Predict the 3D structure of the following.
Amino acid sequence: MLKPGLTLFVLLIVSIAYAEQPVSGYEFLTPETRAMQDDDFENPGMSAVDDGRALFHQSNADGKSCAGCHGINGSKLSTKHIAKYPVYSKELQRPITLQRQIHLCWEDQLENIPLIYDSNDSVALETYVRYLARGEVVDVDITGPMKPFYDAGEELYNMRFGQIDMACVHCHVYHQGKRLRGQVLSQGQSNGFPEYRLGSGRITSLHRRLSECFVSFRAQPFSFGSEELINLEVYVHARGNGLKIETPAVRY
Amino acid sequence: MRIQSNQLNFLLIMVVMFLSVMPLVSYSANQPYAAWKNHNDEIRLALNGLKGDAERGRQLVIDQNKGNCLSCHHLPVPEEIFHGDVGPDLHGIASRLTIGQIRLRIVDEKVINPLTIMPGYYRHPDKLRLVANEYADKTMLTAQEVEDVVAYLMTLK
């Protein structure tokens, strides 16, 4: 027989253990990989930053560019604001991700050919803009109109998917720090995205990384830019509120 | 002996026919889901009454596309460098659990621990959500493969 008092005590201990501080994936890296991330000349993610920088300053037929409004090297952008994405859009009545905001500028202000979610140019621009806010503290609002989307993201985070029948929470909350074969499970924090993955050898957006997890669950992944992945992005970024942006991070 | 062109044609037709039938053969090998009962934390009867092969089971626990047990458990498999520690060490597991308890834990650990990270290797496919088409309506291991892994784990006294 379980005593109610004992059960409550155990639940309390378990909840304290999980309600811990967010820890960046950086802390789970070897010293060599940390050094690679820290050195802009060694960091392979910097090539996406360079691509994004070029697109940011590239003029369209009318001589307009991102830099035209936001300043050379994004000098007029607020890094604090960048760190708040995804933010609530009154117009869309839902959260808007940084990548989608870049699309809107690109299409509406510059009248360029629309960008496709997660295409190389789209991710390069997101990487560049988030890199401008490197060192800024992640600060996603989860109150007011953002709350239902945060809650929907949390529900997905805890939901089992696929033939493997596993949820994000299993690896990144319950078993963080443990080893899956040779790989140490991190908290799955998103403060370094888009990040360079040494395994695949490419710059990887958060939506692509989430999709990779779904594929490893043997589940049907959600499409890039979908409502589900945006809600997950809200939840995952907010879960890392307080961490410093590391874009472009280097991970395994 | 020289092969006549009509003989070659016949051979080609036979090869094409064989290849086109192969997927059907492997499909028909997908047996219907074997019913099982949880008796007091045990599945006492072998799935479909099948007999396991410990040597095949040992291969399945290593195979990343099959059991992949090493992903989360330490096992006496010295030729593999990396063993995970998400789940308990399985050295000597047969001295701690009965064969029926081991079978239940492989078939569907969630019966015992609903919060577990461990996949149900023979969990009913109807209980799964958003499975990729490639794996739809299939269990992770076949009934025979479950029995093979059980037979292997029973050697770990």
